[in-house]
């Protein structure tokens, strides 16, 4: 190899290594395959179908559908509620229920339940960013930590991104207090009473300094 060729290779090689490393990092942070595994099958949206298949459009000001969840909305940094809005339910809607799940993580054979809120009045279709208490009439429901739990954002482990499903259900009823003991009792109380539903999905990932921390 000529001196000139060696010099050209030396100048290009660092860039090639940088690109290769970048591609490897992107691959490590890519979303997992479609949620057809056990966790995906446990999503509330699949197990609590709306009558007639009516849909709600759900959005958040924090990220686009299918986009990355900002770290400030995760347990890693701030755990600030991202805000949520949805289109009004059909005639007969009395309350809304929100269920946030991560089907890409399992604990005790169950998809991770991050947050629930019940009995949101039919007149309310927006929850403000950084919300610190439920709107009047609404209550926090169960999550993985127990009953009556506030918003608990992602704490994704290092590796592939996880999908976080913020699912909204329009109900023709209210949820009784005794149904808030667990996810099972909550969903049992919702069966056959969902008038419409929808979701927005965000992608969670671990920050670079997250290695060694317990996550979900």
What does this structure look like?
This protein is of the alpha+beta class and 216 residues long. It has helices at 3-28, 38-41, 44-47, 183-190; strands spanning 58-59, 84-86, 95-107, 110-121, 126-127, 139-140, 162-171, 194-204. A hairpin with a 2-residue loop joins β3 (95-107) and β4. It is globular and about 50 Å long. The termini are far apart.
Q: How is this fold's topology laid out?
A:
Blueprint: H1 3-28, H2 38-41, H3 44-47, E1 58-59, E2 84-86, E3 95-107, E4 110-121, E5 126-127, E6 139-140, E7 162-171, H4 183-190, E8 194-204
Antiparallel strand pairs: 1-2, 2-5, 3-4, 3-7, 4-6, 7-8
Give start-end ranges of low-pLDDT stretches: 3-28
Overall mean pLDDT: 86
Q: Percent helix among the residues?
A: 10-25%
CATH class identity of the largest domain: Alpha Beta
CATH fold assignment of the largest domain = Phosphatidylethanolamine-binding Protein
Shape: globular
Number of helical stretches of at least 4 residues: 4
For the CA atoms, what is the radius of gyration? 21 Å
CATH architecture of the largest domain: Alpha-Beta Complex
Sheet with the most strands? 5 strands, antiparallel
Task: Name the helix and strand elements from N-terminus to C-terminus, one letter apiece.
Answer: HHHEEEEEEEHE
- The total of beta strands comes to 8
How much strand content do the residues show? 25-35%
Distance between the termini: 52 Å
Class of secondary structure makeup = alpha+beta
Count of distinct structural domains: 2
CATH superfamily label of the largest domain: PEBP-like
List the strand order in the largest sheet: 6-4-3-7-8
């Amino acid at each position: 190899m000529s001196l000139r060729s060696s010099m050209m290779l030396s100048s290009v090689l660092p860039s090639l290594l940088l690109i290769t490393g970048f591609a490897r990092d992107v691959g490590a942070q890519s979303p997992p395959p479609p949620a057809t595994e056990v966790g995906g099958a446990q999503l509330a949206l699949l197990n609590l179908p709306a009558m007639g298949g009516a849909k709600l459009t759900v959005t958040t000001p924090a990220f686009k559908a299918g986009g990355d969840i900002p770290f400030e909305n995760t347990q890693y940094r701030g755990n600030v509620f991202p805000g949520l809005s949805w289109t009004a339910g059909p005639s007969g809607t009395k309350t809304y229920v929100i269920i946030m799940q991560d089907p890409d993580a399992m604990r005790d054979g169950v998809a991770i339940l991050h947050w629930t809120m019940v009995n949101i009045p039919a007149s309310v279709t927006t929850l403000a960013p950084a919300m610190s208490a439920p709107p009047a009439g609404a209550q926090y429901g169960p999550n993985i930590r127990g009953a009556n739990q506030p918003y608990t954002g992602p704490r994704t482990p290092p590796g592939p991104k996880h999908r976080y499903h913020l699912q909204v259900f329009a109900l023709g009823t209210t949820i009784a207090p005794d149904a808030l003991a667990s996810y099972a009792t909550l969903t049992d109380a919702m069966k056959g009473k969902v008038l419409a539903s929808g979701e927005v999905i965000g992608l969670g990932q671990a920050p670079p300094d997250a290695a060694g921390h317990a996550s979900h």
